[in-house]
Amino acid sequence: MYAEERQRSILERARKDGRVDVARLASDFDVTYETVRRDLTALERHGVLRRVHGGAIPVERLGFEPTLAQRDSVMTPEKERIAKRALEEVPAEGAILLDAGSTTGRLAEQLPAELTVVTNSVSIALTLTPRAHTNLMLLGGRLRPRTQATVESWALQALEETFVDVAFMAANGVSTEHGLSTPDTAEAQVKRAMIRSARRVVLLADHTKVGNDHFARFSTLDQVDCIITDSGLADGLADELAAFGPRVVVV
Questions:
Q1: What is the pTM of this model?
Q2: What are phi and psi of 227, to 5 degrees?
Q3: DSSP at 73
Q4: Domain named HTH deoR-type: which ranges (predicted)?
Q5: pLDDT in tens, 135-181
Q6: Which of 186, 196, 185, 188 is nearest to 170 (CA)?
């Protein structure tokens, strides 16, 4: 087994069990303790695990919110595929909304020029600024440096007077039990307002988000029209999500 395959398996186990143990991993994979520690260090650098005494815990269990840069450095091929498929959901003309996120950021890089784009992401706004034929609308408000998203009353007031054809949303977690969630309540408020302002809602979420729940829920699954995820999704999960209403696209 290659290191990348082993690390992916370790991460999946950590997310399933809530914790992984160095000794148990070394035994199960028939490798040395030092090899496991290197794997855990690599996963921690990617921002998906946090090392603890004797093992590691997935960041979701700690309520830890990775930075945008940390999230953008993981699951890169999957996010590229999701963003490419999401182009099929972009209207030929009109207005769309891009929620702050690493996968929505990749969609921004591929958008056709002649659209009105509303976003609360400074990062996405900078990507779109050089495009003279894109009508860019940046929501104001308090800036959260960790996610580069604007939040609170200024953003909420603008969204009350906004209506778009499609909102492309991001989430830290999505589950059949609790819907779409994020660690921060201020971002959750803005995300709820984004969903209300859209004719259609498309969630862009790689498979590591599915099955995770975070502190602040901002949507139920029946409020989402389409979920685009990747082929790493566990067997049966696409059907479970689709049973609540959204069309699930696996790429």
A1: 0.77
A2: -115, 125
A3: T
A4: 3-58
A5: 999 999 999 998 999 999 999 999 999 999 999 999 998 999 999 99
A6: 188
